[in-house]
Amino acid sequence: MTTRVQPGRRVLWTAIFGLSTTLALLLTACGSTTGGGGASPSPTVAGTPTSTVTCPTTTGFHLVTSGQLTIASDTTYAPAEFPDPNNASNFIGYDMDLAREIARRLCLTPNIVKATFGNIIPDISSAPLGQQRYDMSISSFTINSDRLKSVDMVPYFQAGESILTTVANAGSIKQFSDMCGKTIAVQNGTVEKDEVNDANGNGPGTSGQAPICKQANKPITVLSYDDQGVVVQQVQNGRADASYQDQPVTDYYASLSKGALVDSGITVQPSPEGIVMRRDNAALEDAVKQVLNDMRADGTYLRILTAWGQQKLAYPPLS
Length: 319
Known about the structure:
Elements: E1 68-73, E2 82-84, E3 87-92, H1 94-105, E4 109-114, H2 117-125, E5 136-142, H3 145-148, E6 152-166, H4 167-170, E7 183-187, H5 191-199, H6 212-215, E8 221-225, H7 228-236, E9 242-246, H8 247-256, E10 261-277, H9 282-298, H10 300-307
Parallel strand pairs: 1-4, 1-5, 7-8, 7-9
Antiparallel strand pairs: 2-3, 5-10, 6-9, 6-10
């Protein structure tokens, strides 16, 4: 087991929202649950309207489009965000359900836009306020110091990292060091890619992973792609010995494979992921924090995670 401290898809931030244990009886309220492909189908349990939602008359939000919350997401990362198998223009997953409910409680129409993972933070942060491409992103971003230099991140989930491989390889690839000398597939723009490159001694040097494969003279052959589905395909077709990604993603693809693929080892334990926000759009960020706290307090947040089998990765962790 490695001892790196920077896990995740995407030095941890320890700001935590208060978690209420009071569950409220849910009623009806204003807002839309459509947009960005519409409401999520089964097996999701979308957020239920509550009697406490009140549309503000003045918000001070600086939005891409008035009346809409424009949300960027790399929709190739099941079960967090991915196309509905029955309607490819509709994006589903626990992140998508959370995003739609946040928008509804802000009395905004959600507009979920498919984006390349590595481009999301620059597209949110680089343009002048009011000219940004997206208002926010929910896309399995691990909170780390590099990202916090250019954006704020509101913690909403936690995830670790693990190895997806075939049953035949599972016994020989159980921990990070076992990937040395192997062919490993990863998604572009992720911390996992930084880690395997740092292990080879040619990465950015920011992941916390020591150059163990370089020292052992057994470099990892890295295959990298923008689409996580393509990453997993490399394991399925035998081009890669394993893929390396967040643990919920590993578990999802293992469950779909009918025993052909397995989670062969957790390399990093769960840590917080965050909703990406501009640092200079304080009114919107404060509102997102508030509705997320409200969702925790009335039970909507946990119901959404439970519908996707991810309740054990709630953040803050459940006691």
